[in-house]
Specification:
By secondary structure, the protein is an alpha+beta fold. The chain has eight helices and 17 strands.
Length: 338
């Protein structure tokens, strides 16, 4: 599968935290041909298994969920108010088109706020929060059918590719899902000593149970967690992680030291460009929960550099996505030496 097209396809499917079934079904349809078995866990995560020689178990984790909204209030004039699913910045939401999913129907909406001309002087100096934003649903003839609790997503966002970079919504974390699929492609006809578990987990954006419950269910020895990190951004006190310079290999207290050394050696052996990302405390990813499951899982976080995180259009390098997949695949092929 072409990596660019796969990124664009996966990023176009709505799947907010707790409502990931559309994206998990799409990925399952792809993974059935690349795995020996696929099933959905009780928490909605997709788990696919590629059997090896049974000498151990390694899991590859990427969360499938994305940011969204839920309607919390509707007034009599056709205006709704929402609460966030995940970490939205209201600055990137104002003025955006929306789609409302309600009882198997779809409705249109626009996020708006009070015009600057009508705001008080002190209000014009700041961006409204979600209490100040409203969702105009009055353009729907039957808007009264929309209910509190309905799911809302930004709409009309079409991803695109330019100069081997992809710009699209939900690349956090559909870029990592794409990397896992590319690993599965590489390993389909290869022999490996470890059984491989491809895990597309749910609810990471709200700190949910998808990844740790899947880790508990599969009884893993090792785990790769694939997520995104801030690329081409200046963070005080840290070296800048750059897009198109390879995946970021994390190191720190939540990362298994021996596994980390092995991954670095593999990257050097196969001339895979990589960057190092220090994690001095909890990583803010599923890594933190996975390593604690059962008696402990030796875990390595690998992050794809991404710019414009948690905005309507995020940016990744196609090469970074592919190099992330190569690094994991080559490590799995040499797991017997650990």
């Amino acid at each position: 599968m072409d990596t660019k097209n796969l990124l664009l396809k996966l990023s176009s499917i709505h799947g907010p935290s707790g409502y990931e079934y559309k994206i998990t079904e799409e990925i399952k349809s792809i993974m059935l041909d690349l795995s020996d078995e696929c099933f959905i866990s009780k928490m909605g995560s997709l788990i696919c298994i590629k059997k090896g020689e049974g000498k151990g178990r390694i899991g590859l984790f990427a969360h499938v969920d994305q940011l969204g909204f839920v309607i919390s209030k509707i007034d009599s004039m056709g205006y709704a108010y929402v609460e966030e699913i995940g970490g939205w910045d209201p600055k990137v939401v104002a003025g955006q088109r929306a789609i409302i999913y309600s009882n198997d129907k779809e409705f249109k909406g626009i996020f708006g706020f009070l015009a600057p001309h009508l705001q008080k002087k002190d209000e014009r100096q700041k961006m409204p929060d979600f209490d100040g934003l409203f969702l105009d649903i009055s353009m729907n003839e039957n808007w009264q059918e929309i209910e509190v609790g309905d799911i809302v997503m930004l709409d009309g966002l079409e991803g695109f590719e330019s100069n081997n970079f992809v710009f699209a919504p939900a690349l956090d974390n559909r870029a990592s899902c794409t990397s896992i699929i590319k690993v599965a492609e590489m390993l389909k006809k290869m022999k490996h000593s470890f059984d491989v578990y491809y895990i597309f987990s749910t609810q990471e954006e709200i700190g949910g149970p998808g990844a740790p419950t899947s880790a508990f269910l599969t009884e893993l020895d090792y785990a790769f967690v694939i997520d995104v990190t801030h690329g081409d951004e200046k963070i005080p006190g840290y070296n800048k992680i750059e897009i198109n310079k390879g995946p970021a290999i994390a190191f720190g207290p939540v990362i298994d030291k021996k596994f980390n050394e092995k991954v670095r050696k593999i990257a050097k052996k196969y001339n895979i460009n990589y960057q190092l990302e220090p994690i001095p405390r909890n990583s803010g990813t599923d890594t933190d929960a996975i390593q604690l499951v059962r008696s402990g899982i030796m875990t390595q976080l690998i992050s794809i550099p991404l710019k414009y995180m948690h905005t309507p259009y995020e940016k990744v390098s196609v090469k970074d996505v592919e190099d992330t997949a190569k690094l994991m695949a080559f490590t799995i092929l040499e797991m017997e030496v650990l």
